[in-house]
Design brief:
By secondary structure, the protein is of the alpha+beta class. The protein contains 13 helices and 24 strands. Helices cover about 40% and strands about 20% of the residues. The strands form 7 sheets. The chain has a 5-stranded mixed beta sheet with strand order 2-9-6-7-4, with helices on both faces. A 5-stranded mixed beta sheet has the order 12-22-18-20-15.
Length: about 425
C-alpha cells in the first residue's frame, strides 16, 4: 500500500500546522531520589523508570524494574500517565510510552501533552512521532565528548498537527494513523517473535555442535598454553574521545562484544595518525581479545581482524599474534566454548569490573589438532555462524528486514507536508 497516498487521502486537502513541542507539551527532566535514604526505596510502589526498563521491557510500559515510596516524590507530584520518556543523555533518543503515573531518572526527559493541547493532539500519535523526534535528537546533540541534548532544543522540535482548524477531525486523522500503526506494530512483533524463537533454537543447536567439534578425548590432540602458540600484546589508551571520522582503523574493546562478530575486515571507528603512533598495532590475521568487562561472559571475547590496512587497539584488549601452529579463527571459535569459559574463570579478578590480564590469558590451554583439522572445523563453524549471527544472511537478516520494513512504512505514514521555512 502506498502510505503517502493513504496519508493524502486522510488529509483530504486539509492544512497541516507545525507546532513546537514546547507549545503542546509539558517538558521536564526526571530525577533520582537519594539512594542513601532507605525510606525512599524500601517497600516502594511508585514506578521509577530508567533506560534499563526500555531495554528489557519495550516501548510501551506500565511498570518499572525499580520503585520508590511516596516520601521520595518532590512536591508530591508525579508525571502523568500517557507521557513519553525519552533519553536525552548517553543513549540519545530511546523512548517509551508510560501508561500510568510515574517518576523517572535524570537521563530521561518527559513529554506530557498539555491539557489545552489534548483537544487536538493524541498522546499515542505523539508516541509514534517520537521515533522521528528521536532521530532529530541524535542529530542535534552537543558537539562535546558526552552525548547530551538540552531541554531548550527539545522544546524547539516541531510536530505536525493535521487539520488545525477542526480539532475533532484532527484527532480523527491522528486516531486512524494510530490504529494502522498499532496493527502494523502488533503484526511485526508477532512475526519477529516467531523468527526470534527459531533463532534461539538455532543458537542452541550451534552452541551444541561448536562444543562438540571443539571437545577432544584425552590424548587425541596436544594441549598448549596460549602463550606458547603466539605473541600476546596488551593494548594501551584509546578513550572514545580520541575517535575521529576518518583516519587509522581503530578497534575499541567494548565494540568487540557489542558490535563485531567473530571477524571483521573493517572498523567502525578511527583515530588520527598522531594518536595511532602511540597505540598497539593490529595486523591482518591478528586476534583482538577483550580483557575487561562489567560481566564475566564478555571477558575473553575474541575478534579476528581481516582488514588489509593496519589497525590499532587500546587498553582492556590484548592482541594475539598466532604462530603457524594455530589458526586465528580456530582460536576465536574456541573462546566461545564452555571449556574456555571454565578456564578463564580461574583467572578472572574483580567484582564490579572483571579483568583477565594478558599474562593470565597466556596460561589458558588450547587444544591443537592438525592444521587440516583446524581448517575443517573452522569451515563448518563458519556456516553455522553465518546462519545464526550474520546480518547479511540467515535469520538475523530476516529479523532486520522486518524491522526496517516496519520503520519505512511508519515513517511514510508520518511524513506530513512541511513548509520550506520549517527545518529539521
Amino acid at each position: 500500500m502506498n502510505k503517502r497516498g493513504y496519508l493524502e487521502k486522510l488529509l483530504d486537502g486539509e492544512e497541516v500546522e507545525w507546532k513546537t513541542l514546547g507549545e503542546v507539551c509539558e517538558i521536564k527532566n526526571g530525577y533520582t531520589p537519594s539512594k542513601s535514604k532507605k525510606e525512599f526505596w524500601e517497600g516502594g510502589s511508585i514506578p521509577w523508570f530508567r533506560m534499563d526498563d526500555i531495554r528489557q521491557n519495550g516501548r510501551i510500559l506500565d511498570d518499572s524494574l525499580q520503585k520508590i515510596t511516596r516520601e521520595a516524590i518532590k512536591s508530591g507530584k508525579l508525571f502523568p500517565a500517557d507521557s513519553i520518556i525519552m533519553s536525552t543523555t548517553a543513549t540519545i533518543g530511546e523512548h517509551a510510552l508510560i501508561t500510568r503515573d510515574f517518576l523517572c531518572n535524570q537521563q530521561l526527559t518527559v513529554l506530557s501533552v498539555k491539557d489545552k493541547s489534548k483537544k487536538y493532539l493524541h498522546y499515542k500519535y505523539l508516541f509514534y512521532y517520537s521515533f522521528i523526534l528521536s532521530d532529530l535528537c541524535r542529530k542535534n546533540t552537543n558537539p562535546g565528548g558526552f552525548a547530551l541534548i538540552g531541554t531548550t532544543k527539545v522544546k524547539a522540535f516541531q510536530i505536525p498537527i493535521p487539520c488545525p482548524s477542526n480539532p475533532k477531525k484532527s484527532l480523527s486523522i491522528q486516531g486512524e494513523i494510530v490504529r494502522i500503526l498499532d496493527a502494523f506494530t502488533s503484526l511485526t512483533a508477532e512475526l519477529t517473535a516467531e523468527l526470534t524463537a527459531e533463532l534461539t533454537m538455532r543458537k542452541k543447536q550451534y552452541n551444541y555442535y561448536r562444543n562438540k567439534l571443539l571437545t577432544f578425548e584425552d590424548g587425541e590432540v596436544e594441549w598448549r598454553a596460549l602463550g606458547e602458540l603466539g605473541q600476546l600484546i596488551r593494548g594501551n589508551g584509546l578513550p572514545k574521545k580520541d575517535f575521529t571520522e576518518t583516519g587509522v582503523p581503530a578497534i575499541h574493546y567494548g565494540q568487540i562484544y557489542t558490535y563485531y562478530g567473530l571477524s571483521a575486515d573493517s572498523t567502525i571507528s578511527f583515530v588520527s595518525h598522531e594518536t595511532a603512533e602511540r597505540l598497539k598495532k593490529v595486523n591482518k590475521g591478528d586476534v583482538v581479545i577483550t580483557n575487561t568487562s562489567e560481566n564475566f561472559e564478555d571477558v575473553g571475547t575474541a575478534m579476528v581482524y581481516l582488514g588489509e590496512e593496519q589497525a590499532v587497539t587500546g587498553g582492556h584488549a590484548t592482541i594475539f599474534k598466532p604462530s603457524v601452529k594455530i589458526l586465528g579463527k580456530y582460536f576465536a571459535y574456541f573462546t566461545q566454548t564452555s571449556a574456555f569459559q571454565k578456564a578463564k574463570k580461574k583467572y578472572a579478578k574483580g567484582a564490579k569490573v572483571i579483568d583477565v590480564s594478558a599474562n593470565d590469558m597466556s596460561k589458558i590451554y588450547v587444544p591443537i589438532p592438525s592444521p587440516a583439522e583446524q581448517s575443517r572445523i573452522v569451515s563448518i563453524l563458519n556456516k553455522f555462524d553465518a546462519l545464526t549471527y550474520s546480518i547479511s544472511e540467515g535469520l538475523p537478516r530476516e529479523i532486520n528486514l522486518r524491522q526496517k520494513q516496519y520503520e519505512y512504512y511508519r515513517d511514510q505514514l508520518l511524513s506530513f507536508p512541511k513548509p520550506a521555512e520549517v527545518s529539521a
